[in-house]
Write a structure and sequence with these properties.
Length: 377
């Protein structure tokens, strides 16, 4: 198959493309060049600030259009797959549907259905947007802006249009899966985030004289992800147990440097308001690092995992984070087994080739509908 990935987030599409290439498929990843993050792609797009930056970006996209034809599958990274206004995005989306066989949308990141599920349907006990099943809305600016943006009529309707007309929707986290299930159950297939795991042996799971805690910060989303609260709990733990804890905090590092700094750590603290570890947590777990963050029972049920429960789940408050961190400090004998389970969990459920095989099966089923005489949507 020929597969085009348009847009990416945290290397989800790039890792998937690597897995599909291992299975013998031809893939191309076109995605944004994101300031300091330096994620890999096959073709990079960059929208620079200002009027001329916008014009040059649009020209580059238009020049690319002939190369966006003739694919068996086009997979979009959510409704905002390019940095363009919705009316231009819709024209390009319709172009993709016209000149390719099937279009799939990956559900990850903020979009209308995610915001709507959190804020209006109250599907979760807590989320990035609310702290309870009743309307206890988060008040920090990033959350307010996401809600306001995605409830604008043009953004809401565009997301609905893609969901209605694409051939499949593949949420990559439990939360996105539940939000899209409310409306598009027949189109939705949960797909784990693909991770390229590192080789590890038993010695890499042991803990040395101090427990090494690690926190990575994206400054513009610190409050939105609860990083500010988690950082405070970490700093207080380090102060309370100076001989037992080593704390590393990094901010806005390029991807390669971030991974280098992560190596050799014991515990990553990440995603206070999530039910599920996202790519950052999974990258750590693939290296035998324990993730403290979102590990609610729902994710284990979704992947049908009854034995490997390695994520140290926390409630969305300082007290819960501090308590769970302190348990690890006072009982370091737990950590080696949690590290081993973390590594095995990712290899079992998120290995990039296993995930690629799941996508391959979905793609084949979609293309077989064509062979039965159905007209692509």
């Amino acid at each position: 198959m020929k597969i085009l990935f348009l847009g990416d987030a945290s290397m989800a599409h790039y890792n998937l493309s690597l897995g599909l290439r291992k299975l013998g498929h031809e893939t191309v990843v076109i995605s944004e060049k994101l300031r300091w993050r330096e994620f890999p792609q096959d073709i990079a797009l960059e929208r620079k600030p200002g009027k001329w930056g916008s014009i040059s970006y649009l020209i580059k996209v238009l020049l690319l259009l002939p190369r966006l034809r003739g694919y068996d599958i086009v997979q979009l990274v959510g409704p905002n797959f390019l940095s363009l206004r919705k009316e231009r995005l819709r024209w390009i989306y319709d172009y993709l549907r016209r000149y390719n066989k099937r279009v799939v949308m990956t559900a990850l990141g903020d979009d209308y259905y995610w915001v709507h599920g959190c804020c209006d349907l109250n599907l979760f006990r807590y989320s990035d947007f609310n702290l309870g099943p009743v309307d206890r809305r988060q008040t920090f600016p990033y959350a307010k802006k996401q809600y306001e943006d995605w409830t604008l009529p043009e953004n809401k309707e565009f997301n609905k249009y893609i969901a209605r007309t694409c051939d499949a929707i593949t949420p990559v986290l439990y939360e996105y899966w539940l939000c899209y299930q409310q409306y598009w159950k027949d189109k939705v297939t949960y797909m784990p985030l693909p991770v390229v795991p590192e080789d590890r042996n038993a010695d890499s799971f042991r803990v040395r004289d101090r427990i090494r805690f690690f926190l990575g910060i994206q400054r513009n989303r610190s409050e939105y992800k609860g990083t500010d609260i988690m950082q405070k709990a970490l700093e207080d733990i380090a102060a309370a147990y100076p001989g037992k804890v080593e704390l590393t905090v990094v901010e806005n590092l390029p991807y390669s440097e971030y991974i280098r700094r992560m190596e050799g750590q014991d515990v990553l603290v990440d995603q206070l308001y999530s039910y599920t570890p996202a790519m950052n947590g999974l990258l750590a777990m693939s290296r035998g690092i324990v993730c403290v963050g979102g590990g609610e029972p729902e994710i284990y049920q979704l992947v049908n995992e009854r034995e490997l429960h390695p994520i140290v789940n926390v409630e969305p408050c300082y007290e819960s984070v501090y308590k769970e961190l302190e348990k690890l400090v006072l009982h370091p004998e737990r950590i080696a087994e949690l590290k081993r389970q973390s590594y095995e969990f990712v290899r079992q459920h998120h290995h990039y080739i296993k995930v690629a095989q799941r996508y391959q099966n979905l793609y084949i089923s979609l293309l077989n509908e064509d062979s039965k005489g159905n007209t692509p949507v």
